[in-house]
Amino acid sequence: MQVDEATVRRIARLARIKITDAEAKGLKSELSGILNWVEQLDKVDTSLVEPLTRVVPIELKEREDKVTDGDIADDIVKNAPIVEDHYFVVPKVVE
Amino acid sequence: MTELNKLTIAEARAGLRKKQFSATELAQAFLTAIEASNAGLNAYVLPTPEVALAQAAESDKRLKSGDARPLEGLPLGNKDLFCTNGVRTTACSKILDDFEPAYESTVGANLWNAGAVMLGKLNCDEFAMGSSNETSAFGPVVSPWRRKSADGALMPDKLVPGGSSGGSSAAVAADLCLAATGTDTGGSIRQPAALTGTVGMKPTYGRCSRWGIVAFASSLDQAGPVSKTVRDAAIMLKAMASHDPKDSTSVDVPVPDYEAALSEGIKGLRVGVPKEYRVEGMSKEAEELWSRGIDWLKSAGATIHDISLPHTKYALPAYYIVAPAEASSNLARYDGVRYGLRVPKSDVTDTYESTRAAGFGQEVRRRVLIGTYVLSAGYYDAYYLKAQKVRSLIKHDFDKAWNSVDVVLTPTTPAPAFAFGEKSGDPIAMYLEDIFTVTVNMAGLPGISVPAGLSAQGTPLGLQVIGKPFDEATILRAALAIEDAAGRFPVPYRWWESVSQAAPMEKAEGNRK
């Protein structure tokens, strides 16, 4: 699979990572190389195989539906770059 | 008295109980060694002497009052992927900046509640993505091992300590902690252990809680120890493992006394040798060592059986779909809003994109983009679903093998440690470092790497023992038989102790590039 530069830019947009034109060029060949390499999986017949979803067959546990913590707003915003009154501050989103 | 930092966990535990030295003296010996050595090795990204000395003081009280816990007073290093309450945690990425968690990882809490002492946070590849520790935002870890030339002289090239738990492996090999925590997603404990002459164990998926560990690929990540001996690995695993309601994938099964199980020996143990691990490009040394390992286990009473794991060669390409896919999802949380780095821009999308461009290193960006691609509309079935189906086949290979054998013996890596920069230009060459370890993560099995010999250039090589789910006790017994036969491999020449004096410790704490 060869990816082109437009695809690299589209993927970078989806991943929310800004890339320069020079980086897009480099990534085009790197990503193509990796995707070519994983293409060997096409040789494996998986038509009758279920995808693995759990490596260990356990039932997910259910827990009691109750609040186990709270009143830690200070802790939650402690590491935020910009905070006002326990709110995370971001640039204006809605005009 | 021998230098305290050169002891094993079992020896230090005995010494503390017999009051040959105090926990404070022991912690101080390590802090002094770290101060003298860290500038040369870059193993610690944040030494925490005040935490260590406070914990050691508490240990001394308990040792005195006869109230000692299982790991009382034993100084450990903690990979910087484990969240530490009130202590900076970065995953060795710029994007976490000076993140200071308000909570402790469950594995960390288990260790400190068992009396262990934290010496500091250990370097690793950024978000645990790498096999050489060269992707860390704090710069690479230098292996304490050096190659020898034909005339026996030490060569100047810096070698990698493996990765991603390269700070853990280097610190244990250089006696800068008794043992260390690590995490293993595709080989990140076992490969660095093999490259540094240390013991590295990845438990069964679900044995240790993943809560409070910075997530890379959630269906593969598992915590485990790096230690000097197999016995120490058994002691560490017992303390690290637990069922944790905060991690729904952690399994509610009893944790055996692994140390006690070691004395059972391996008489009658059925050892499988998979033909598919004889890969092209494997070094002659690794192949010879593998044969020697087979002989050692045979002499200790095991029987050897040829087995086939036919889908082995597809494990690595399948891994490089599954792991980046899960990573791209896990790393979506780093957006510059709630914690970590922010590059302020006038609109929110530009803020996200600029923050993530500045905060993620090259390898992390590459993997997030691959992961985004394979999960994007129209490609999910062709890549992610396909890889998960291949994963079923890999697991099925092992399930079948367990009908005729109890453990599987392989080399840990195809070759010994390489030099800085030797593989960093070629992502796939670097990915091939994990060719023998990644199958174990894909199948969720336990695996251990135990040092077994030296290459012609005097650098370590390891053997890997793979076991059935939750049968860590058996692979520890097999690993002990190898250790008994091969002996231990301490670093022969401590060159780093003379180069470090000039640089102060602050440098290690603050020099994130």
Chain-wise SSE layout:
The complex is a heterodimer of chains A (95) and B (513).
Chain A: H1 5-14, H2 21-38, H3 73-77, E1 83-84, E2 87-88
Antiparallel strand pairs in A: 1-2
Helix pairs in contact in A: 1-2
Chain B: H1 9-17, H2 23-41, E1 44-47, H3 49-65, E2 75-79, H4 106-113, E3 117-122, H5 166-173, E4 179-183, H6 190-196, E5 199-202, E6 223-227, H7 230-240, H8 258-261, E7 270-274, H9 284-299, E8 303-307, H10 315-330, H11 348-359, H12 362-375, H13 381-401, E9 407-411, H14 427-431, H15 438-443, E10 447-454, E11 460-467, H16 472-486, H17 496-499, H18 506-510
Helix pairs in contact in B: 2-3, 5-6, 7-16, 10-12, 10-13
Low-confidence sequence ranges of chain B: 500-511
pLDDT averaged residue by residue of chain B: 95
The strand order across the widest sheet of chain A is 1-2
Q: What Rg of chain A, in angstroms, do the CA atoms define?
A: 23 Å
From the alpha carbons, calculate the radius of gyration of chain B and give it in angstroms.
21 Å
Summarize model confidence as the mean pLDDT of chain A.
Answer: 92
Number of strands of chain A: 2
Class inferred from helices and paired strands of chain A: mainly alpha
Report on the structure:
The complex is a heterodimer of chains A (95) and B (513). Chain A is mainly alpha-helical. Helices cover 35% and strands 4% of the residues of chain A. In chain A, helix 1 crosses helix 2 (21-38). The two termini of chain A are 41 Å apart. Chain B is of the alpha/beta class. Chain B has 18 helices and eleven strands. Chain B has an eleven-stranded mixed β-sheet with strand order 1-3-2-4-6-5-10-11-9-7-8, with helices on both faces. The longest helix of chain B is centred in the C-terminal third of the chain and has 21 residues, at 381-401. The two termini of chain B are 41 Å apart. The interface between A and B is large, with 50 and 67 residues.
In short:
Chain A is mainly alpha-helical and 95 residues long. Chain A is 35% helix and 4% strand.
